[in-house]
Amino acid sequence: MRIEQTEKRKRASGRTSSRIGRERDATRASGEPETASRGRSASQAQSEPAASRIPAGVSRRSFVQAAGGLGALAGVAGLASCAPRAVRAPKASGAAGADPFEGAEEFFAACPPECQHHNLKAQVVDGKVVRVTCGAANESRPCMMGMSRVEWLSTDQRLTTPLKRAGEKGAGSWEPISWDEALDLVADKLRDAIDRVGNAGIVCDSHAGNFNAIAGAVGPAFIARIGGATTLTGSLCCAAVAGATIPMFGKRFYDTRNTIADAECILVWGNNPAVTMNGYFGRFEQAMERGAAMYVIDPVHSETASKATEWVPIKPTTDTALALGMLKVIVSENLHDQGFLKAHSTAPCLVGADGALELIDPSDKGSYAVIDARTGQRVRHDAEGVDPLLSAGEANRADGARTVFDLIVQACDEWSPAAVEAETGVPAATVERLARAFASTKRGMIIQNMGGFMRTSYGTYAVAAQNNLAVFTGNIGAAGNGVCDAGGINNHVKLSPLFDNPAVSPDLPKIPRVRFARRVLEDDPNPIEVFISSRESPMTQFPNTGLVKEALKKIPFVVVIDSLMTSTALYADLVLPSATVFETEDLLCNARSHLVQLSQKAVDPPGEAHDDLWIFTQLAKRMGVGDDFDHDAEFFARKALEGTGIAYEQLAEEHAIDAYPPDFVPYASGAFPTASGKAELYQAPWLKKGLEAVPAYHRAAETRGGTAGLDDAYPLAAVQRKLNRSVHSTFGILSSICSATRDHACVMINSQDAAERGIGDGDRAVVYNDRGEHRARAIVTDQIMSGVVCVENGWWEQQGGSSSYVTNDAVGHLSGEHCCNETLVNVRKEA
Ligand SMILES: Nc1nc2c(c(=O)[nH]1)N[C@H]1C(S)=C(S)[C@@H](COP(=O)(O)OP(=O)(O)OC[C@H]3O[C@@H](n4cnc5c(=O)[nH]c(N)nc54)[C@H](O)[C@@H]3O)O[C@H]1N2
Ligand SMILES: Nc1nc2c(c(=O)[nH]1)N[C@H]1C(S)=C(S)[C@@H](COP(=O)(O)OP(=O)(O)OC[C@H]3O[C@@H](n4cnc5c(=O)[nH]c(N)nc54)[C@H](O)[C@@H]3O)O[C@H]1N2
Ligand code: SF4
Ligand SMILES: [Mo]
């Protein structure tokens, strides 16, 4: 039988019984303002009025009708109610000015995909969420996606019962089955896989779909208890910054968010904070109002570029060459901060002939050698009163000694401004101007934000070269400067482990996530019999969708746990219906946000849907390992909060606490949490990968003039961008979002490239290469470099398919980087 989208779902009205909810209700102060803005910044980033999000030519009335249904109507009301005051919320009913939902029960929850984790408030009438608006402690209002959750909670598209595949994989024929049947089936398949292939025959994966603590812990806890599985390694997102910044600076996920407004020179490097950090983009605007210059280095004239001092278009994948060129200008003009480099980095440390840093005491890994300028002797870098030579060349030494500084300068040598221009497309004069602008201030900030340049095969070097720029100019460790990673409260508040997981065999295979499909198809290193996927959408987000589809078809038993029939669920053997925000209790304290939040359950999930805690608990019981699971969410939330200094009761009362130290500056005063206490600019482990220990530029393979040799067939470089209508694939299918924005993919193409192909603005186009095709409407514009097209992240199969149909599934060289922004394509007008 084929389940129609109009399938009647069992309503779960009036069944809410959240403990947290009841507590909240009892303690709720009356008349709490809708926006409890307790953030420390005065900035209000969400400046776009909700009304302006309605597409041109669509009246608000027809938009509301198109959105349809009470839930959607309330969604629109919610959209407007969090917009700036000037925009009046259309009323669901009643007299003008009266709030139709006044007195409704209120619940609070975090918006948990890999985004900014706004706190949301749901109002519940008769057991239904009728409106989602701004919750507690937000710096800015949530975006329309957060508020569209009112539709997500009530849409007929929700999965309400386990579904077993009834026809060919991908054909969309499903048989509803009971939870008992579904769970027995999964347990049988797991046992069978373990019997025949061993635990290596199982993959249980998730990625960035939900940053909540409990949802995130249960899958791994379950797998550990059944003896482990094959794991997928390497973030699709930020493998590059993990690979560069952790060894160089000792730690990552730091952000400079609290002092952005103090910056004087901001390099927004290959990312688009006006969209992807919209929650605090006001801080960038504040900096500019105070006179800061903001440069956006991006092949696309993005939303951020349109607000910047200058757009610096750059050929994709060439960022390291630009950074090295800037460094060359800085050093040759003596603009580098020698004092900072000597005191707070390994730049003066000596590199031995064997490629390792020289040690004064071989038994002490931190005893790096430097040459003391006064004595000419080798001493420890941290010896009392030492004045290290930055360059060994200064001493004209006959022993061929080289410092890290020397090697870095050498790696920049070929990157004269003219050479940079030839490789990157950034004019030589701009390279010089950027270098001088950044080096002439101590309030220079680089925004990385897990940007697009990282998702290329040498992305780690691009991050490392940018890190070097910050260290060389002394632009790190003080307010208004630094390198802005996506940040996270989990650097300051450490949750206690929710489960005490048993160790599993270290011999179980690890597969780079970007190669998952290929490795499955090649049975490398062994056949995968069972794949359980939750909190991710491989069919839209893993590279090379065509192969992912084949892999999902090949794996004998694919289980997808999600709340909607996602692009990935379409190719499952069994789909398990999960709960979503406001249907489950959870705790959030993670990357990307400064808030610690407790999420309340406001309503029951529709039909027989259950949260991940319940699902994995039932599976664990069936596999005979359920003992540690059988607790409610409150038990786990309390356990996680142990040792954080935050009491469960306080969080239940306040919902969200901004626990980020207000004056926190990453690596303050040049103290780095590395072995040496300094920025480690030399990474010997990179030599083992056959590459340089300091960032060097290598032309990416799948680029114009690269070794892939695809220029003739596929002369256009395709980059990806994230949209304000979806977080990856999340939200993108909801009708309120589709009507407020659009329901089809677009591709930005330069006018000249479009003209050569007979493509006009608004034409249907096909972006293609040997991997596959991605259909999108053309946006013909000069706001993108010629030779580059920009496709969009997150479109569903049901909407024409993901841009990942064409993306490169190569594994990055240093950190297993995802290479989606290193992709060559061509574009044709759709016949
Ligand atoms: N609304 C919304 N917000 C989000 C997300 C979302 O999906 N939607 N996702 C969240 C997540 S997980 C992440 S990682 C962040 C990402 O945040 P961003 O990094 O800001 O997002 P992207 O859109 O991936 O990339 C931004 C830019 O990188 C450029 N780019 C691509 N390749 C290159 C290159 O080689 N060099 C240079 N210089 N530029 C390049 C693209 O043209 C694009 O404009 O956003 C987070 N916030
Ligand atoms: N082509 C292309 N590919 C990309 C990128 C790109 O820019 N372009 N960006 C990359 C980046 S930066 C990232 S971070 C990744 C993100 O890729 P993914 O992590 O795969 O993110 P989503 O597409 O948002 O998928 C999240 C899914 O989790 C589900 N979900 C949410 N909450 C829960 C829950 O509590 N339980 C369960 N079971 N499911 C839940 C959502 O409904 C959704 O279907 O994509 C990467 N891939
Ligand atoms: S989708 Fe992102 S920006 Fe929008 S409300 Fe949720 S966390 Fe905030
Ligand atoms: Mo990401």
UniProtKB/TrEMBL annotation:
Residue ranges constituting the Molybdopterin oxidoreductase domain according to the UniProt record: 158-622
InterPro entries per UniProt: Asp_de-COase-like_dom_sf, MoPterin_dinucl-bd_dom, Mopterin_OxRdtase, Mopterin_OxRdtase_prok_CS, Prok_Mopterin_Oxidored, TAT_signal
Pfam families, per database record: Molybdopterin (PF00384), Molydop_binding (PF01568)
Record domain Molybdopterin dinucleotide-binding: where: 722-821
Keyword Signal applies: yes
Keywords of this entry: Iron, Iron-sulfur, Metal-binding, Molybdenum, Oxidoreductase, Signal
Xref: SUPFAM superfamilies: ADC-like, Formate dehydrogenase/DMSO reductase, domains 1-3
Gene3D superfamilies on file: 2.40.40.20, 3.40.50.12440, 3.40.50.740, Dimethylsulfoxide Reductase, domain 2, Formate dehydrogenase/DMSO reductase
Annotated spans, Disordered: 1-56
Record's keyword annotation contains Iron: yes
Annotated GO MF terms: iron-sulfur cluster binding; metal ion binding; molybdopterin cofactor binding; oxidoreductase activity
Compositionally skewed regions (Low complexity) per UniProt: 36-52
Family membership: Belongs to the prokaryotic molybdopterin-containing oxidoreductase family.
Protein name: Molybdopterin-dependent oxidoreductase
